[in-house]
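Aim 2 progress update. The chain analyzed this quarter is reproduced below.
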Amino acid sequence: MHTRGSRQSVALVGALAATACGRDPSSGPGETETAVVDGSETNAGDGDGDGDGPGETETDTDTDTDTPAPACGDGNLDDGEACDDGNLDDGDGCSAGCELSGGALLETCMPEPDWPERLEVLTLATVDGVPELQLGGTTQGELFYQTAWVLRLSSDCELLWATSASLPLAAREVTGVEQIDDSGAAWITGWGYDEEVLADGPGWSWLGRIEDDGSWAWLEDALPVDKPIATVVRDDASAVVLGQGQWTGANSLHGFSPTGSLDWSTAYWSSDEPLSRGLALERVGGELLTIGGVWTHDEDYVSVSASVWVSRLSDSGEPLANSVHPSPRFSFASARASVHDPITDTLALAVREYDVPLVDEMMAWVRLDASGETVLAWRSIGPGFPLDIEPDGEGGAYVLGRVDNQLRLGHHGPDEEAPALWEVSNDHFPISLAVDLEGGRAYVLTDSGIDVFML
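Predicted structure tokens:
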């Protein structure tokens, strides 16, 4: 039985300081008390005419600088302030009125002994209407990271249960934890390899089902399919997994029954076609959408470009149509993550953009119609490498990126010309994003734990 974890709060801004400034009245034996009257000091002194004698007045020529009155924006957390970041700017987590606002870092949930050594994936589940966090990772074994862990945490990061699976002398990587239904059961996907695989490739996939109490319903290991990088779960608890060759970048789709047996596989790229690479998978209206990038070039590879690529397939993996969307600003563009927003029935994509030579790597978020055929908005959001995206339910999106190995998280509205609603950063190394719209929280998995932000 695992003990419940704890969390460590992170200070929002500075420390509370209180300073008093003034003169102490002299009151010792033989000392004369001075009174201040209209800026002058009246003294019962010695009467020598130098200003300190009886009835003589001495004008105070010293300049006393009092400590400024506490004010919002001074960098000190004063009474009545929820935060103070040293400025009067909005959109950075602390408003111009020193109130917490979107992007405020509320806390960082620090790793506990029950957590895996290497944190790899974070998703959000809703169990009987209550949001819970699903955390996947691995722990070092004799030779590799051999033990795969899955943890269920409450929305305030308390450990509910932890479970693991290991394979002697083989490495594991958790690539997905996806909720099956409102009961809290989940599909787990991952990749495995050993010393022979390191020499010859390409490794193998493994997958399993975990019930809401953390018990394994089943675990299928050493499946001869590509590395799973995205999974969608159907209503009947069956699943479709997007696979990617570890060394080749080739794509494949695999359909699995609710008990993990392989029902069908489809490979939809070959060497005589433009190189396409699927990095995300959605299921919309009973059809599958693989989303990523497609690279085109001339015969001599002199002219090379890349565009956002969406491949629409039937629910059993039969190709239906492809859509290609070039960047309006750069010669290279590739979607790194996607999500279907059921409220607006649109697709939100986190896109990487750049030119060759790679000098400036930029992030963009792109909104497509539900079929992936029409671009509704294309918004550049600045330097960085996009990692994850979640919709805000109003046509905008929360985008997680990495800039110089540091976290960058922003809320971008539907107007592609308007500035970000808010954008924040810190020095943690970001991995993935989960958003609880009803709870008003964004959870970012980092190498340091889980950062919890206010939406």
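Residues 195-200 form the longest helix (6 residues). The first strand starts at residue 35 and ends at 37. These observations will guide the mutagenesis experiments scheduled for the next reporting period.
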